[in-house]
Amino acid sequence: MIREFMTANTWEHWSSALLAIAIFLALFYILRRVVLGRLKKLSTRTDTLIDDFFYEVLSATRVLLAGAVSLYLAQLFLIMPASLEKATGRIFVALLLLQTGFWVARGLDFWLRHRLSHGEPGEQGAREMTRSLLSFLGRVVMWSLVFLLILDNLGLNVSALIASLGIGGIAVALAVQNILGDLFASLSIAIDKPFVIGDFIVVDDLVGTVEHVGLKTSRLRSLSGEQIVVSNNDLLKSRIRNFKRMQQRRVVFAIGVTYDTPRAKLEAIPLLVRSAVEAQDNTRFDRAHLKGFGAFSLDFEIVYYVNSADFNLYMDIQQGINLQLIDDFKGLAIEFAFPTQTLHVASIPPVSGSLSSAVDRRQLQASAVPGSHREPV
């Protein structure tokens, strides 16, 4: 077949085919540069997304398109056997399908990027996470479809292939069910958004900031600096505490004073605490009460709110409250309680003279016996 193909075409046929390919390639690169340049300038001058979309899509044009069209032009000038012409046509369609895949992938990425670019400033991490996951899944579906179309174009029985893949897919799904569980968990995270990139979360005994959400695992950066890798399925099975979404922080702390504090001063302590809390910015006082009687102190419980999720701000406020309470208590001579214990010893009645002498004689006799020992009374 190849010998017949070579002998059937003269140098005139070959030169015409090569000239057509050269002219098309030159026009292709010139036209690509001119069109992309015009679209780029137009996209910078206008606010519409149409020109931006076409620029993004056409910039994904690969050499595959040039090769496919060149192959099609070459066969127009050559005398080819029917089988070779059929194979050339199939290769031409396969290259066009591949180039179409690149166009669709770039268009999908452009649409997701602009679709998820609008929203609250604090949701940037959630949008980026959703975009990356949806873009990956969209590319998987699209390239799977392109692959099946190419196989169908090459003459393979795609229906039988899909059926066999379905049967084999069940066995594979049973074998990799943990991986599939993590995959669907990543979809749940992307859709439901229990946390996003940049959130500070607590999962069981794990504490850290979300750095990456992948198809199988998510990665946290702990407070001590190391990276924690957790499977997505385990994350969704756990109780997640998302501190980044905290709108206000409820603070409960206690103080104790000594039992000899007068009643008038005890009644003044809630007012002092309220004044100390309200003196700080971004706080809302809730209550302060004499809660109970401790082992060595009269215990007060104080509750207030910090109107921010910033932990450092909360610690600064608590420090300011503590310092002011120390000054106020010192001014009113109120003493903070600390662990103490009072030992009450009952008085021992005096011992009579005859009984005392008898005890002394027994102690002397015991000390005179070799090897004997008696604890002093």
Automatic annotation (TrEMBL):
A Pfam family it matches: MS_channel_3rd
A GO CC term assigned to this protein in UniProt: plasma membrane
Main location: membrane
Membrane-crossing residue ranges in chain numbering: 14-32, 53-79, 91-112, 133-151, 157-176
Gene3D superfamilies assigned to the protein according to its UniProt record, in alphabetical order: 1.10.287.1260, 2.30.30.60, 3.30.70.100
Subcellular location: Cell membrane
Membrane found in the keyword field: yes
Keyword Transmembrane recorded: yes
Keyword list, A-Z: Cell membrane, Membrane, Transmembrane, Transmembrane helix
Mode of membrane association: Multi-pass membrane protein
MF (Gene Ontology): mechanosensitive monoatomic ion channel activity
Domain Mechanosensitive ion channel MscS C-terminal, residue spans: 251-330
Domain Mechanosensitive ion channel transmembrane helices 2/3 intervals: 139-177
Mechanosensitive ion channel MscS domain ranges (all copies): 178-245
Family per similarity comment: Belongs to the MscS (TC 1.A.23) family.
Protein name listed in UniProt: Mechanosensitive ion channel family protein
Protein's organism: Rhodoferax antarcticus ANT.BR
